[in-house]
Amino acid sequence: MDAAALRNKIVKSALGWVVIFIFFFPVLWMWLEGLKTEPQAASTPPTIFFTPTLQEFQTVLSGDFPPYFINSATASLLSTLLVLVLGLPAAYALSIRPVKRARDALFFFISTRFLPFAASLVPLYLLARDLQLLDNVFALAAIYTTINLPLGVWLLRSFLLEIPHDLFEAARVDGAGFGNEIVRIVIPLIAPGLAATSLICLIFSWNEFFYAVNLTSSAAATAPLFLVSFISGRGLFYAKLAAAATLASLPVLLAGWIAQKQLIRGLTMGAVK
Amino acid sequence: MRASAASVFGREAWRRRLPLLPAFIYIFLVTQIPFVLTVYYSFFSWNLLKPGSFQFAGLQNYADLLTNESIRTAVWNTVLLTLSVIAISVVLGLAVAMLLNSEVFGKGLMRTLMIAPFLIMPTAGALIWKDTLLNPLFGLLPYLLSPFGLGRVDFVNQFPMVAVVTVEVWRWTPFMMLIILAGLQSQNPEILEAATVDGANAIQSFRRITLPLVRPFIELGALLGSLFVVQTFDTIFMLTYGGPGEDTTNIPFLLYLVAFQGFNIGQASAIGVVAVIMTTIVATFALRTLFSIFQIEARR
Fold it and tell me: What ipTM was reported for this prediction?
């Protein structure tokens, strides 16, 4: 590498790091505020140097936060499982041995994902009210399944299309049925696809707020609703707020970082690899 | 003979269809029936707080929408919010993607840190911006800006739409960056080198080679992004609660207010139908782009 190229690289790196720092700073600040004491978090000028303490994290974890967290986990994991169970056979029927007019079916699935939440909220609310399903974490999981199933079908299909078709022909000669093919060929070969699908389902259902705030109140309230109670905080609970925000964001942040490679494919429903 | 062949084909067709049915029926029941009901309710005057108020109202709810100041404001705010968030985050996302596609130190770590804003729970992100960064008394930004004679600016109240757009741009730039970066990485570096050898300068090679190549990716990012941004609710709920006044009330937030603060089911349903019409226009383009990219992939 000659001197000009190295200088070019240094300039670009410096510029890049400044931009990254600006974008990452709110996250970093959230972490720092969470590690402060309340007076430090609400001080003027802002406290930059301090001895970190886990005090507020302990306060949040020993307080009323855990039930919200558990509700989020229940709704997210349950709906993710349902998406895989319903979505994998559907993706199979749209790729390996496609039904007639598979393209129309694909179009139908994805068009439901683009239907605004606002279009179905009122009837779902009334229905849940009449069936005594308001504030029910399973009802929430059922709704999250409809949000994620279209994405799941598209994404799983894009992975299924990558399996060499000969494998299915060979299995068929051996007399393997649908269930056998799924267990012996599909699941082992598209493990990354199942992971990517789970990740996308987790991101969307864990962070979901619109249905959660309108269909739950206390028993089934999820993690984002715990944060709502801080809206009116006037400088009193910043450290606790930041600790709660950090904890609420942690599962998706970690999952997204670990599965970075799958993220782009998941977000574009398999269109971009 | 012919009949039995047909029944074999029929059985085969059903065998193929069977794995599809559970997902299909599930989605159909939970999305299409509520939507039809929304359309149905939109023709009724119905307030949940007034028992017996369920009455056919014809197009009255829609007529009310046409003369209603709030809905016009909400439509305008939705369009303004969506267009500015998408435009700004595409430009920033393209810039960051190009930086990350060039020779820089710590590329992997940069990418990892950059996607964090997209992964952070939107409710948490909005709360952090509102209370610890933008708060006029204790926030970091007013403090950092105070030496420049701006005083303690109350961003959220004085420039509410700018505040909402800022938080949303912060969240969606990483999304655009990821998609555009994938496009840049599919580019053959030898073509760029050849262009440099041919004497093309940086701007020329960007306009003639890079931009045409990433254009489908920019379109895909912009369209998918706008389908999400049109539905923005969490950020507005946490940051401004639609205010001050109706300055940041968009369609989803207005529907929330009408349905769950006003309990006006008929009016809320009509707003839902308007939301569907607005989204369908964007979604049609999005689907076309998605399908064209899938065809490109298939041809490879």
Answer: 0.89
